[in-house]
Amino acid sequence: MKWKKLGKVFCPDGSVSWMNSHAAVPIAEHIEKNLFRIYFSSRDIKNRSRIGFVVIDITNPKNIINISSSEVLPLGDLGTFDDSGTMATWLTKKDNTRYLYYIGWNLGVTVPFRNSIGLATEKNDGNFTKYSKGPILDRTVNEPHFCASCCVIPDGDLWRMWYLSCTGWTKKNNVAQHHYHIKYAESNDGINWKREGVIAIDYAEETEFAISRPSVIKEDDCWKIWYSFRGESYRIGYAESEDGKNWERLDHLAGIDVSAKGWDSEMIEYPFVFDHEGQKYMLYNGNGYGETGFGIAILEQE
Fold first, then answer.
1. Which of 20, 22, 66, 128 has the fewest CB atoms within 10 Å, counting from its CB?
2. How far apart are CA 174 and CA 150, in angstroms?
3. What fold, for 3-16+77-299?
């Protein structure tokens, strides 16, 4: 694979209080023809994650057609799993319902934060409503820390999920550092999930401590996944699988890396891969975990 970068698409200019900075973890939703709605997570003036979107024409992605006038989901009630931030992580559709999976943020004391996964749905009016005040995925007896970014694909009667799972915290220079990789889960309804500790993408070496934002597609009989991984700084990785559970890491085939200079010269992360009219595209973030906005790349044809 070789991805051709088309440039940065959008970054908040600080003029809106709830969309003060960042455009992280972008998600593409096809509207009609060449129009796409790109959801992302910004940060408000108090540094809390909020979900917004822009509308673009994929043939001219730098031309912003529309920007959301309000946030997609409100923060949760005081003390709930998403009272400190909501961050969209995946959007899928089953029958006539759209399912928006999002990360809920709680601030911590002994560690900086704790994440869980929530769900919002939409059937007819275009507006998302939270499924519940509590998360659909949270820490458990066997996963005692937190879970976060996920990819969810309805596959016949089975729903498949690949999700970030924290394996622990350590102290580095007296600062708490998280460690997380990607696990796999299944469901019959997209809401209640069976988690058996199946590791999809594991750490490649001791210096690697963060693997996040899985983006999965199935082509013919091959499952393909793109994700972020980091030791010193984020890069985009790639793996393949015959069953969606057991993966072979092929990071050297990812076909995209940091630029020599500019907004994505220090790190590159949070890929979202999708197809449109026979062409494959990738949304991604660069420096500062989305602080410099998101860009788009196109897979060059062989």
1. 66
2. 30
3. Tachylectin-2; Chain A (2.115.10)
φ, ψ dihedrals at 260, nearest 5° = -65, -30
Q: Give 64-92 as a DSSP string.
A: EEEE-SS-SSPPPPTTSTTTTBEEEEEEE
Q: pTM of this prediction?
A: 0.97
pLDDT at 121: 97
49 exposed, middle or buried (CB, 10 Å; 0-12, 13-18, 19+)?
A: buried
Torsion, Cα 234 264 19 39, to 10 degrees, reads -70
> Which pLDDT value is given to residue 183?
98
Q: Which residue has the tokens 């499952």?
A: 223
Rounded to whole angstroms, how far apart are CA atoms 271 and 225? 10
Residue with tokens 């057991």: 246
What the block records as the tokens of 100 is: 């928006």
Cα gap 178→82, rounded to integer Å: 19
Is the model's pLDDT at 302 over the cut of 80? no
- CA 49: distance to chain centroid? 13
